[in-house]
Amino acid sequence: MPPKLKKTNTGRIVAVHRSHWLIQDQQEKLHKATARYKAGAPVVGDLVQFSDAGGGGVHIDSIEERESTLQRIDRRGQPKPLAANYTRLVVVCAPAPGIDRLLIDQYLIAADHGGVRPLLVINKSDLIEDVSGLDPMLAAYQKAHCETVLTCAMQGDGLQNLAERLRGEVAVFVGPSGVGKSSIIQHFVPDREIRVGALSAAGMGSHTTTASVWYDLEGGGAVIDSPGVREFRLDHIPVEIVRAGFWEIDEMGQGCKFSNCSHRHEPECVVLEALQENTLDELRYKNYLHLLAEAEAAVRN
Ligand SMILES: Nc1nc2c(ncn2[C@@H]2O[C@H](COP(=O)(O)OP(=O)(O)OP(=O)(O)O)[C@@H](O)[C@H]2O)c(=O)[nH]1
Ligand SMILES: [Mg+2]
Ligand SMILES: [Zn+2]
Asked: How confident is the model at residue 15 (pLDDT cuts 50, 70, 90)?
């Protein structure tokens, strides 16, 4: 007989599946909650109160206030939380399926908006013939106050470096499908089966991660694996947040003639000058214009 549950219990959401949530209690025991929680859906990382629902299941009674929330905008334009109570956003990209700079910059805004520092991982370094070709991009992100780490999950390169930077943090791994998020996490959580490739072997056709999962790390902290996204929509995010999210542009822009300079066409614009002088990354600037226009269009609609 499993020990009877107390009237109310506290635990952490460690996995979100389509039809149920997994809650880990303070004794590291897992509980399955199936009933829909009416006051909003808990996400991975949430601390919740739960009670016995009979039949081995539990009910989620309430969600504790979140210290941080990662959210995207769903197809109906509603903000949709993806993870809670995290301290670092790890954006993973790779030469295969390709480095999507716009997606990276959207995530950086989300990190800034969520009040956490981002970290950019470029995985599959084994597929890059001339790694020095990445230098301009790495420099651009370092200027944007985003740490960068080059890794190869297949051979283990760079993972020690990454682990050191994430020590004690709750790191959410995000990025497109197939860049190697689960492969990297598997190195950090060797005793947990992440089953990279296992599902395809079982005939499911893909090793894609379908649920966000929280893994406690031995030395403290945690990592959250998440399913790959094709796009990460940000419209409905206020213009000010887009502007602030482009850290280096915002910082440079303090020197522009007009304090509300949009850095598009204004005279004596330090950002445009930097672009001319090649001290501002062209793609960062292009993405800034793109996301700013999107945010402005959202205000008009
Ligand atoms: N060449 C190479 N392949 C890698 C590396 N890391 C991961 N892969 C391969 O890339 C594929 C996708 O890896 P996953 O870890 O499942 O990618 P993911 O980002 O978790 O993907 P989703 O769960 O769909 O979001 C697998 O076939 C891995 O073996 C790497 O460093 N080099
Ligand atoms: Mg995965
Ligand atoms: Zn300007």
From this structure: confident
